[in-house]
Design a protein that fits this description.
- By secondary structure, this protein is α+β, with helices and mostly antiparallel strands.
- The protein has 8 helices and 6 strands.
- The longest helix has 26 residues.
Length: 224
């Protein structure tokens, strides 16, 4: 028998353990988890009869085999959940899927809205360049952010870490407002300690230029 040690009882660690055990291999699998709960950042915490997810995380993959694997383990909901009923939310439901009100083994469909509370205002995350964003920032901060972005366009930093990755695309001011503290709180590490490759995976195609183009396109469509 081969001994296998897996570090972390998050989705990746649990998946690896299940695959090793169910494929008939002669393995003795041990999962080492530093906390008292399984699920990693995808876990649901139970508190005073309520269930709360840790952060605004979603599950998706472009690999259909991966999606099918999870659908087999946790079937997509087939009936509205309690909050859907109370709030009048309509969700795509799976035919013959489980009822979240009576079963725990079910994958819920959720609309995600991520926002940052900064200087007594809520801002979209990832940041969006819409009139409300500029209004909440104020004229002075908007000007500082604009000049900071222009500076970053001219004086590029070597993208040796996530901090420089963000600054190159948004400027120092917007980075400090919307990315630095948020990233450190979420991942427990300062962006200067995280690889820039991670940023390219998390914010694909996101930059001030892309945001302005998107805002312009939406404005044109609105006029039409």
């Amino acid at each position: 028998m081969e001994n296998v040690i897996i570090i972390g009882a998050g989705p990746a660690g649990l998946t690896a353990a299940i695959e090793l055990l169910k494929n008939g291999g002669d393995y003795d699998v041990t999962i080492l988890e530093g906390s008292q709960a399984m699920g990693g950042i995808s876990q649901t915490v139970r508190y005073n009869g309520n269930r709360m997810d840790i952060g605004g995380h979603r599950f998706f993959s472009k690999n259909q085999q991966v999606m099918d694997w999870w659908a087999d383990l946790m079937p997509l909901q087939g009936k509205p959940a309690y909050d859907d009923k109370k709030l009048g939310h309509e969700k795509p439901l799976a035919e013959n899927g489980p009822d979240p009100e009576t079963e725990d083994n079910v994958m819920l469909v959720r609309d995600r809205v991520s926002r940052i509370y900064y200087n007594k205002h809520f801002f979209d995350y990832p940041i969006s360049m819409k009139p409300e964003t500029i209004k909440n920032m104020g004229f002075v901060t908007t000007m500082k952010a604009g000049f900071s972005y222009l500076w970053a366009c001219v004086f590029k930093k070597p993208e040796t870490n996530l901090e420089n990755f963000y600054i190159n695309r948004f400027g120092k001011v917007l980075y400090s407002m919307f990315f630095e503290g948020y990233t450190e709180k979420l991942w427990g590490r300062h962006p200067s300690e995280i690889s820039a490759d991670w940023g390219s995976q998390r914010v694909k195609g996101l930059s001030i230029t892309a945001l302005l183009k998107d805002m312009f396109k939406k404005g044109v469509r609105h006029k039409e």
